[in-house]
TrEMBL record:
UniProt-recorded name of the protein: Methyltransferase type 12
Record PANTHER family: HEPATOCELLULAR CARCINOMA-ASSOCIATED ANTIGEN, PROTEIN-LYSINE METHYLTRANSFERASE C42C1.13
Keyword Metal-binding listed: no
Signal sequence, renumbered to the chain: none
Length: 223
């Protein structure tokens, strides 16, 4: 037994049903060798990666609706990685990343569960440079600004891994740190706008999701 329990979840994105293995609830915890603790993941945070949150639904909807033309995409804090799975199904060049030690096996399992090849994955600490990760045309994330330090950390990752011409799409549920993040993005030369986005297939205008979009250089806006 792995020390935690799971359940299967069914999610519909753009009329397509996704089957996902997620943690049974937020009470699950298993860190027998202290790996997660050494990465800075507390027992209270440990289970957060293992659910599909409303912001994750919204990001997946945005990835289903957007138009891509050969861009390389990085997802930050992917968790279960629904948005990356949607991109993988669409044939987009995507790399999923997270710090949680179980994010990669859960992502691989869910790709197989939906008859997809494994998504390219890298474990990424936002406070530790990873030059081998390379650079990306589009960086995406959902609900990554939930702690005050995250604005600086996430903008730092973007600074290291975004191409000179790049876009950043962040679904933010209004945690209170988006203003600071937007100012940091402006200091890197990005212009910003925001729009309401659907959280699920039944969401009608005005949509319940909030997508922050940042653009630098000649990068076109998402469709």
């Amino acid at each position: 037994m792995p020390g935690y329990s799971t359940r299967q979840l069914s999610v519909t994105i753009g009329g397509h049903e996704w089957r996902l293995r997620v943690l049974s609830d937020l009470q699950q915890f298993a860190d027998p060798d202290g790996h997660g603790e050494r990465l800075g993941i507390s027992s209270a945070q440990w289970s957060l990666f293992g659910q599909v949150w409303p912001s994750g639904h919204s990001l997946a909807q945005a990835m289903h609706r957007a138009t891509f033309n050969g861009e390389r995409v990085l997802e930050l804090g992917c968790g279960i990685g629904l948005a990356s799975l949607v991109l993988q199904q669409r044939g987009v060049d995507v790399v999923a990343s997270d710090i949680h030690p179980l994010a990669e096996p859960f992502l691989a399992y869910n790709a197989a569960l939906n008859a997809l090849p494994a998504v390219h994955y890298r474990q990424l600490r936002w406070d530790v440079p990873l030059p081998s990760l390379g650079h990306f045309d589009i960086i995406i994330a959902s609900d990554v600004l939930y702690e005050s330090a995250h604005a600086e950390l996430v903008s730092g990752v973007i600074q290291r891994h975004a191409r000179d011409t790049a876009q950043v799409w962040v679904v933010d549920p209004g945690r209170g740190n988006s203003g600071r993040f937007s100012r940091l993005m402006a200091s890197q030369g990005y212009t910003a706008d925001s729009l309401r986005s659907p959280t699920n297939d039944d969401d009608l205008p005005p949509y319940s999701g909030r997508l922050l979009r940042y653009r630098r250089g000649e990068a076109g806006r998402p469709a």
